[in-house]
Amino acid sequence: MSTIKACIFDLDGVIVDTAVYHFKAWKRLANHLGFDFTEEENEKLKGVSRVRSLQLILEWGGVEKSETEQAELADLKNSWYVEMIQEMKPDEILPGAKEFLLAVRQAELKTALGSASKNSRTILEKVGLIELFDSIIDGNTVSASKPDPEVFLKGAESLGLEPSACVVFEDAIAGVQAAISGGMKVVGIGDAQTLTGANLVIAGLHEMNLDKLYKL
Ligand code: B16
Ligand code: MG
After folding, report:
1. What is the pTM of this model?
2. What CATH architecture does domain 19-85 belong to?
3. Domain 6-17+90-214 is in which class?
4. Cis geometry, peptide bond prior to residue 149 (ω within 30 degrees of 0)
5. Position 1 pLDDT exceeds 70
């Protein structure tokens, strides 16, 4: 009998690729402020909270803003981002994600979302996956960002489980570190050289199955 009782999924980069929309919205904001924003810089913002992302972008652009201005700029970026995600459709679910979620539920394991995004419910509703999550822990419920384990610990707690009974699926190194320091097993989605410390690294959930899960 496996000790694994639940899977906790990050959203962006694991279930859907919202990074493309974040990129467009941040680039528009940077251009609005008079500088450019590259895809390489966008990579560094994966899993990073909205406020922290803005601070980094302002640093890269060499621009200083007061706290009030920062809040306004973050809201402006979010309004553009929210406009784009309204148009998201089920065909934007990453390959294998829905199939693996269904297999996990079929095996009577629990599912939770553990995302930094404050827009996670909208995204899951738009792509038609919200019903497949027993619990949603996201940027609205947590105060500390990954690599702090808070988001995943709250995920385990919301399911009534010990961290050791949960497996986290994450594409960002900060998220992998968060899962490890929370005492969970972790499957990295992406590149094994970047996602060091993960129990297993795969290219996407299309490469995952229950067999691999129980062997972790
Ligand atoms: P929001 P994840 C993260 O999602 C994104 O990777 C990151 O780029 C974004 O800044 C963050 O959510 C906050 O998103 O502005 O919608 O609150 O990977 O933690 O699911
Ligand atoms: Mg992510």
Report:
1. 0.95
2. Orthogonal Bundle (1.10)
3. alpha beta
4. no
5. no
Minimal-distance CA residue to ligand 1 atom 8: 46
Which pLDDT belongs to residue 109? 98
- Rounded distance between C-alpha atoms, residue 82 and residue 105, angstroms: 29
State the distance from the centre of ligand 1 to the C-alpha of 210, rounded, in angstroms.
27
Residue 199, pLDDT above cutoff 90: yes
Q: Which residues surround ligand 2, an ion (CB under 5 A)?
A: 10, 12-13, 47, 171-172
Amino acid at position 16, single letter: V
Confirm whether 138 is a catalytic residue.
Answer: no
Q: Is the CB of 46 under 6 A from ligand 1?
A: yes
Percent of the chain with pLDDT over 70: 100
Cβ of 145 closer than 6 Å to ligand 1, yes or no, is: no
